[in-house]
Design goal:
The complex is a heterodimer of chains A (about 375) and B (about 675). Chain A is an alpha/beta fold and about 375 residues long. Chain A has seven helices and 19 strands. In chain B, strand 15 and strand 16 (about 495-500) form a beta hairpin. A five-stranded antiparallel β-sheet of chain B has the order 7-10-5-1-14, with no helix packed on it. The chains are: A alpha/beta (about 375), B alpha+beta (about 675).
Chain lengths: ~375, ~675
């Protein structure tokens, strides 16, 4: 309970007015001063009683696309035996505020308040703690009470419908042509490598084990299994607005590919490397990753991270709107090209597109534009 | 509604409230100018300020120019409303601007120098709407911080009180309106406990008015009109000279009732040598009220006077009310003296004045006024003091004593006539008159009377003027030099200054005496003979000295506050059942489907008042589900009727309505069987 600055000033002016009125003989000033004192006393009376209520916060849905609808329901319950007068509840959502004017509540009654949360910002936001304010109508006094519990709101990047492209593992040219019509599916051996616990024991390559003296296994891959890799540029050099568009595009492509049961991978120069088995869980996983991904703190990172060094197969999409591409990045891209069926580079209008043979380049103003071009050119 | 629109609505409310809070102090000048003279310019300025604010809201490019625009618009409105005679076909001229500037610089001074209420002229009034304009403009610019925006109007309120401190009912109204306006500026989005805030503020404000304050300080107290000092002969010194040229005409007049005498000047300062008049002159306003301390009823008289020329003083009466005509004299409200500073040729004017009438029977026993200074005397010799004591028979200073002194002078001294008239009214001449010659003109009689009265403690002053002659010439009364007269006046409690006539010359020529003169004559006749002592009128008991004086104010305040709170509480208690009754009656008067729904509302409110948990959106059957006893059946019946009325498509006929209300009556009957306490709580439940 305390007086606001306005309340303190009003009280001071009131005292001055009353003193002046009494000394100079002006009843009107005394009355105006007395009125002000009355209002301040009323404000103290109003703000003096902290709201005794229980507030249950329900957030639904707690995962929402950017600019989607997320509704917070405050169930305000008056557990006391006395009527509870109205107050203002302010809920914190990330950096935004949601204000709810709670009406007077009878003893034992409960009143739900539905409010839409602001979902304009991608990210994982803490909702709460709820702060209850009580102030009088003239803003002379106020009291505050914070109620502890918090909830989490995931604001995913927006996804746009887009067609997934199918691209499998290219067969090494020494192996001859792949069988297109294998009746029981196919399994290509990709490499023979040392055994690690957890590997299938049936795939042990005994000859190689005998030769090397340590357990070796065969690494198989289904050449028809479609693969899809997104390299999202999250380096510091990318502008914030363009990065949001990039994230939106990456989310759209990944969701479409994961929905189509493709094996997907999300890699960023900043160290994110998300691989998930296909299916709905995968969509969730990528969206969560894209929800919290942010530009790196350090500048000067290479565009192609080390984790992509041995990888390959399927389609690689590089989404970068960095203005410049260093010769090292270009060399890395050139090195990547042969290991993938197709490589697409999506850059912003101002971004640099290195001349790499065999890489298709899409120049787009924003995510929607990029998807339109994707639909027209790639899919 | 968007956030901007609602923000604009709040800002508009604030601006209107602020302009109201600015207009209220402006209208508090009503005792000075009259309310209806103030309303048009103040309202005009307020409307102009609001129009400019609204314009700047719609055209944001004009926003930086808002103060200037407000100033120009307000000035234009002022010129059109108050200075229309200076415009040329409605367009302001240079003259308008000059008068406006003069309004800012001079008008407040002219107002302070005038008697109140002032003449309703723009030159005096302009400073009030100009102040409203400036205050409103500054307030709007400060509106970003509402509490600060109120301060200019608060300063203006203080200023209005330094002009004229408001009291009584007008003060209550002004405080409430001002408080409401300030609350409108302060108002925030929170709506909790509005009744508490309003109630406490109103009670505190009214209680604040009940607190006794000291006498109000007014900036007008020491503000008088500047009168150029001129070297001229006092009318008192001219008495003998005028008597020696008796037939010269001084002025002429026609009046609606007989006049006793005309005064030119009142002299109340005496330093032992000369008699001097006061210089507390004011400009004559629209009308002068009765002087403070006069409790007897008065009546209005009027006369038309034509004065050919002469001194700066114009013939007047003791309590002048107004002067109409081409002249604008200054007036001394204490003495009734009219002064025309730059007097040229002959002047003609209509004078109205007040005269005491009615029952003045207690005059003889009245006390002399205690709030008037007795007056200066110079150095008094013992012989003179002895004469004063003899003349008043050592009595207390009362009006009867004053009459005895008058009788003493008129019986023991002789009026001088003929060629060698005594002159002078300083102590040497008065001593000679009192002790040696005992012969003098009305000048010596009046001056002696005043000094003797002052010696014994009777407040007295000396007036010089003319008696009213009996003869008329063609309906006009001509006053000549021979009518010149000096007379003493005595301050009497509740009546004011009563003129006496120790020389006995005023009544000789008096036409028909006034009420006061009649009463005086009667009192003179009833005086006891000189050998007897004077009857001592009863003295009222001394006022009770209050021991706890400083606490009575607080006690009264607390008492009034408690009474106010109690009244508010009772009113609030009664308001609840009355409001419910009105609500029920209104619901009963609906027809058709609406009446059936109203029956449901009535049942719902009844049950809610009795403590049922009713939530928004509950249907009749929902309510029946949480109810118990026979109420459930009644509610189910009601539900059928509500369904019929709302959903059957056939609407509700008279039978359905009656049945629905019958169900309500059943519920009421069931609830009436609850305990007394529960029913009492239900009656006063706000539901």
């Amino acid at each position: 309970m305390r007086l606001t600055r306005r309340g303190v000033c009003t009280l001071a002016v009131a005292v001055v007015l009353i003193a002046l009125g009494l000394v100079a003989g002006y009843p009107l000033l005394v009355a105006v001063g007395a009125m002000a004192v009355g209002a301040v006393v009323a404000a103290l009376g109003v703000a003096g009683r902290k709201p005794r209520v229980e507030v249950i916060r329900e957030l639904f849905p707690d995962r929402v696309e950017r600019d989607g609808r997320a509704v917070i329901t405050l169930r305000v319950h008056n557990p006391g035996t006395r009527r509870q007068s109205g107050f203002t509840a302010v809920d914190r959502v990330g950096e935004d505020r949601v204000t709810v004017a709670v009406r007077p509540l009878a003893a034992g009654a409960e009143q739900p308040y539905l409010n839409e949360l602001p979902t304009g910002r991608r990210g994982r936001h803490d909702v709460g703690p709820l702060t209850l304010f009580r102030a009088d109508a003239l803003g002379l006094g106020r009291s505050e009470l914070s109620l502890g519990a918090t909830a989490t709101l995931w604001v995913y990047p927006k996804t746009h419908p887009v067609a997934a492209v199918t691209g499998g593992l290219p067969v090494h040219h020494h192996d001859g042509e792949a069988t297109e019509t294998s009746p029981r599916g196919s399994l290509d051996i990709r490499e023979v490598r040392p055994y690690v616990p957890g590997d299938e024991v049936r795939h042990l390559h005994w000859k190689a084990t005998a030769r090397t003296g340590q357990l070796m296994v065969r690494d198989y891959a289904d050449p028809h299994q479609p693969r899809f890799t997104v390299l999202l540029d999250d380096r510091r050099e990318v502008a914030a607005a363009e990065f949001e568009e990039s994230v939106e595009l990456a989310a759209s492509l990944l969701v479409a590919a994961a929905d189509a049961d493709h094996r997907c991978r999300l890699v960023t120069p900043g160290g994110v490397d998300a691989v998930a088995p296909s299916g709905w869980n995968a969509v969730q996983r990528y969206l969560e990753e894209l929800c919290v991904v942010d530009r790196t703190r350090d500048a000067g990172l290479p565009l192609v991270p080390g984790v992509l060094a041995g990888a390959g197969g399927g389609t690689l999409v590089v989404i970068s709107s960095a203005v410049s591409v260093s010769p090292d990045d270009r060399a890395a891209l050139v090195g990547l090209r042969p290991r993938y069926g197709a490589v697409v580079l999506v850059v912003g209008l101002s971004g640099a597109a290195p001349e790499v043979p065999g890489i298709r380049v899409l120049r787009s103003a924003n995510a929607v534009d990029a998807i339109r071009q994707w639909q027209a050119v790639i899919a | 509604m968007t956030r901007t629109a609602s923000g604009d609505r709040v800002t508009r409310l604030r601006v209107v409230s602020l302009l109201l809070a600015t207009a209220v102090p402006g209208l508090l000048f009503a005792p000075v100018f009259g309310l209806w003279a103030l309303v048009p310019p103040v309202a005009g300025v307020g409307v102009a300020c609001y129009a400019v604010f609204e314009l700047c809201l719609r055209v944001p490019a004009l926003r930086p120019w808002r103060p200037l625009l407000a100033l120009v618009a307000g000035a234009l409105v002022l010129v059109e409303v108050t200075l229309f005679d200076t415009t040329r076909s409605g367009l302001p001229t240079l003259d308008s601007l000059t008068r406006l500037v003069a309004g800012a610089t001079d008008s407040w001074q002219l107002t302070l120098q005038s008697t109140w209420p002032v003449r309703p002229e723009a030159d005096l009034l302009l400073f009030v709407p100009l102040l409203v304009l400036i205050t409103g403009m500054v307030g709007i610019e400060l509106l970003r911080r509402p509490a600060v925006a109120v301060l200019p109007s608060l300063g203006f309120l203080l200023l209005s009180q330094t002009f004229v401190a408001l009291q009584g009912t007008e003060a209550v109204v002004a405080v409430l309106v001002y408080g409401a306006a300030v609350a409108g500026v302060f108002v925030s989005e929170a709506r909790s406990a509005v009744a508490l805030t309003v109630g406490l503020s109103v009670v505190a404000g009214v209680a604040g008015l009940a607190v006794p304050t000291g006498p109000a300080y007014s900036v007008r107290h020491n503000e008088f009109a500047q009168v150029p000092q001129e070297r001229e002969v006092s009318p008192l010194a001219e008495v003998a000279a005028r008597l020696s040229d008796p037939d010269a005409e001084v002025f002429r007049y026609t009046s609606d009732a007989p006049v006793d005498r005309w005064r030119l000047v009142v002299l109340d300062g005496f330093d032992g040598v000369t008699w001097t008049a006061g210089d507390r002159y004011r400009r004559l306003g629209a009308e002068i009220g009765p002087p403070a301390g006069t409790t007897v009823p008065t009546t209005q008289r009027s006369a038309r006077l034509t004065v050919p020329g002469g001194p700066r003083w114009l013939p007047s009466q003791a309590m002048p009310t107004s002067v109409t005509g081409p002249v604008r004299p200054l007036v001394d409200q204490d003495s009734g003296t009219l002064l025309l500073p730059d007097r040229g040729g002959p002047v003609q004017y209509d004078l109205t004045w007040r005269e005491p009438v009615g029952d003045l029977a207690g005059l003889a026993d009245a006390a002399v006024s205690t709030d008037v200074r007795t007056g200066d005397l110079g150095t008094v010799r013992d012989e003179i003091a002895a004469i004063a004591r003899t003349a008043t028979r050592d009595a207390r200073p009362t009006f009867r004593t004053a009459l005895v002194l008058e009788q003493y002078l008129s019986e023991n001294y002789k009026l001088a006539t003929g060629a060698a008239l005594p002159t002078g009214s300083g102590w040497p001449q008065l001593r000679e008159f009192l002790e040696t010659t005992k012969r003098g003109t009305s000048e010596q009689f009046a001056a002696s009377y005043v000094v003797l009265a002052r010696i014994v403690g009777i407040p007295a002053r000396l007036a010089v003027g003319y008696r009213a002659p009996r003869d008329q010439e063609g309906g006009e009364v001509v006053v000549r030099n021979k009518d010149v007269l000096a007379w003493p006046e005595v301050a009497v409690e509740g009546v004011g200054w009563v003129p006496l006539d120790p020389a006995g010359t005023a009544s000789d020529a008096g036409a028909a005496p006034t009420t006061l003169a009649e009463v005086l004559a009667k009192a003179r006749a009833e005086l006891p003979p000189p050998s007897q002592p004077l009857p001592d009128p009863p003295v009222s008991a001394p006022a009770q000295v209050d021991e706890g004086g400083s606490w009575t104010g607080v006690g009264t305040l607390v008492g009034w506050g408690l009474v106010g709170l109690l009244a508010l509480f009772v009113a609030a208690l009664l308001a609840i059942p009355v409001a419910k009754l009105v609500r029920t009656v209104r619901r009963r008067r609906y027809t058709g489907a609406r009446s059936v729904v109203a029956a449901w509302w009535e049942a719902r409110d009844l049950l809610r008042a009795h403590g049922a948990r009713v939530t928004p959106g509950m249907t009749v059957r929902d309510l029946a589900g949480v109810s118990e006893g026979s109420i459930v059946d009644s509610l189910h019946r009601l539900a059928v009727h509500v369904d019929t009325a709302l959903w059957s498509g056939a609407g509700a006929d008279r039978d359905t309505v009656t049945a629905a209300w019958n169900a309500v009556a059943e519920i009421r009957g069931t609830l009436a069987r609850r305990s007394f306490g529960a029913r009492l709580r239900a009656v006063f439940a706000i539901r």
